[in-house]
Amino acid sequence: MDAKKWMMKYLKPLEGRTIKKTGVDKDGFPYFTLDDGTKIEVSCDEEGNGPGFLFGLHVPIDTEKEKDNDE
Known about the structure:
Layout: H1 3-11, E1 19-24, E2 30-34, E3 39-41, H2 63-70
Antiparallel strand pairs: 1-2, 2-3
């Protein structure tokens, strides 16, 4: 099975699911909890070497950082 087919099979169980909660765990990994209570953590790789980033979301402006720059 090629990489794309493997990834599509891997992600298929997420189709039609509802995200009920989002958060960041104590190690800095973003996660979301699905409608059945399943917790999905986002990592940069399958070994869990670091937290990941979700492309396609609006990047919020850090208003605290802007205030620091104004001083």
